[in-house]
Amino acid sequence: LEKERAEQQRLQAERAEKERLEKERAEQQRLEAQRAEQLRLEAERAEQQRLEAQRTEQLRLEAERAEQLRLEAERAEQERLEAERAEQQRLEAQRAEQLRLEAE
Prior knowledge:
Elements: H1 2-103
């Protein structure tokens, strides 16, 4: 009887140890899965940030290009107006010379 009780206690202790180890393993797996999900989310966030930075840089370059085009157009318009003024002055000088010659 004593032997039987000792054997039962040993089996019970074995079962308890087995259950403890299984619980421990399950907890470890849960923590690993949690960590993997955390890493996946961090990688996703990092990729989103990379894409946002890329888009921001693209927009900056587009704005820079638009500003360059605006300045070029402004310069071209200024040159056109100056050429127009120069032509007007040339015509006025020509007219004045013509009048002077006619008056002589």
